[in-house]
Design brief:
With 508 residues, the protein is an alpha/beta fold. The chain has 22 helices and 13 strands. The strands form four sheets. The chain has a five-stranded parallel β-sheet, sandwiched between helices. The termini are far apart. Its EC number is 1.1.1.17.
Length: 508
């Protein structure tokens, strides 16, 4: 018997054949309530999954998700989902090898906005849409790296600004233009706005989204910006779930159970979402399915960004240089586990805010366990990608706070030094490294001078500010970078651990 195609018609048979859990709610009754930009693996393993849980309990059928894509590559997601009634499989993988497959049904449509920007704006302006959510990555917010402000000189942004000033919607290119156009339409029609909910890995993601959307709106129409400032909510959130890129092996695993899914999602068994309760037009009852709805997200997001995300950077460059491709392979080496725990305990944790009821020691050790989950098959190159957006947001705030308070930055400096060595573009075995970063050319040019000028990489003030002028940072940075050149990643880590009193073989 050939595998079945995943679609509404075959759901019952798919359960019988594969044992996969499928939606038990009537998908024909779902109406749209959310538009989401950035329908990738993380959104489908996280926000869409939580909504599916609510729908399984008979709730939130008026909160169906319409996906939107603005980038040329988004055509692939549009076509994959359209070919299977916007259903997809979420495979949750536990470290012991257990796999739980579930078909998620909360996404009901997908619009590729370049096909018809006017129709996309009309969808966003539909009064049934009460939340517009975003997972557009750290680099998607159009930030000028030199100033930290909204980049008004971006060509696509300038185009959309001119279109909106002229009252046109038919060639809008960016999610900033599309969302602002919809809010402009609602304001003109006397309609209520929607909430803009960022789910990206950025500290203060809602505040940041508000700042940049208002900056764009101000450049279009100051009165519109003032209305948005008063009427639109931009809640902060902290999101957490390791979700590697989907591979052909993942598709084959699904097919082996009896059905075809063009784009399944794989994730670890851990998931967390902390969400600020600030919405202007209602929201799903997320707290009923495990979401922590709170008044202040900041302590939670600092814990996640500075422990989990920064630790990802702590393992990926050293690991890549040492020849590792899989994250769990890095964590199989005791020196990496001890280095990450030492960074979290000595440098990251002192910069966190009070978190009553949270066992930070247990959280740190849980992170090590999660990173070592071989079943997830997360890759080191994935963690190394887009470092110029990640390091300044996740790790450098730890450095700045510790320097200001007289704290140690030895381990943070080591992580930055490992990035500088990685950016040279060749590992310790002489193999070429493909540096995936919007600033790849600049980073590699800077790193090419590392052996002549040990602080060359650090002198990029748009990324590092004045760190190259601060001996408390440059001394451990230079020491580690020289050691990476002379001795390699593993021997360098051994020296670092001995220096901070946690050599391999000791008890942490």
């Amino acid at each position: 018997m050939s595998p079945l195609q995943l679609n509404n018609t075959n759901l019952g048979t798919i359960t019988e054949v594969s044992g996969t859990a499928v939606p038990h709610y009537d998908r024909s009754r779902i109406t749209p309530g959310i538009v989401h930009f950035g329908v990738g693996g993380f959104h489908r393993a996280h926000q869409a999954m939580y909504l599916d849980r609510l729908m399984q309990s008979g709730e939130a059928l008026d909160w169906g998700i319409i996906g939107m894509g603005v980038m040329p590559g988004d055509v692939r997601m549009r076509d994959a989902l359209a070919g299977q009634d916007h259903l997809y499989t979420l495979s949750t993988k536990v470290a012991d090898g257990h796999v739980e497959q579930r078909v998620i049904g909360s996404i009901i449509d997908y619009i590729f906005t370049p096909d018809d920007p006017t129709a996309a704006v009309a969808t966003l302006a539909d009064p049934r849409i009460r939340i517009v959510s975003l997972t557009v990555t750290e680099g998607g917010y159009n930030i000028d790296p030199a100033t930290g402000e909204f980049d008004h000189g971006n060509g696509h942004i300038a185009h959309d600004r001119a279109e909106l000033r002229a009252g046109r919607h038919d060639s809008l290119r960016t999610f900033f233009g599309l969302i602002t156009a919809a809010l402009q339409t609602r304001r003109t029609a006397g309609m209520a706005p929607f909430t803009v909910m960022s789910c990206d890995n950025i500290q203060g993601n809602g505040d940041l989204a508000e700042h940049y959307f208002l900056a764009f709106a101000e450049s279009v129409d100051p009165a519109l910006a003032e209305w948005m400032r008063r009427e639109v909510a931009f809640p902060n959130s902290m999101v957490d779930r390791i979700t590697p890129e989907t591979t052909d092996d993942d598709r084959a695993e699904i097919a082996a159970t009896g059905y075809i899914d063009a784009w399944p999602v794989v994730a670890e068994d851990f998931t967390q979402w902390v969400l600020e309760d600030r919405f202007v037009a209602g929201r799903p009852a997320f707290e009923r399915v495990g979401v922590e709805v709170v008044d202040d997200v900041v302590p939670y997001e600092l814990m996640k960004l500075r422990l989990l995300n920064a630790s990802h950077q702590g393992l990926c460059y050293f690991g890549h240089l040492a020849g590792h491709h899989m994250v769990h392979g890095v964590l199989a080496d005791e020196r990496f586990r001890r280095f990450l725990l030492a960074y979290m305990e000595r440098e990251a944790t002192p910069t966190l805010r009070p978190l009553p009821g949270v066992d930070l020691d247990a959280y740190r050790h849980k992170l090590i366990e999660r990173f070592g989950n071989a079943a997830v098959k997360d890759t080191v190159p994935r963690l190394c990608a887009e470092s110029s957006d990640r390091i300044p947001k996740w790790l450098l705030p730890v450095v700045r706070e510790n320097l200001a308070n007289g704290g140690d930055v030895t381990l943070s400096a080591a992580i930055v030094a490992s990035w500088a060595r990685y950016a040279e573009g060749v590992d310790e075995q002489g193999r070429s490294i493909t540096v995936v970063d919007r600033l790849a050319g600049r980073l590699q040019e800077n790193a090419s001078h590392n052996r002549v000028d040990i602080l060359a990489f650090l002198r990029d003030r748009e990324l590092f500010g004045d760190l190259a002028d601060l001996p408390a940072f440059t001394e451990p940075y230079a020491r580690v970078l020289r050691s990476l050149h002379e001795k390699g990643a593993e021997a360098t880590l051994d020296e670092i651990l001995a220096e901070v009193g946690q050599p391999v073989g000791t008890v942490v």
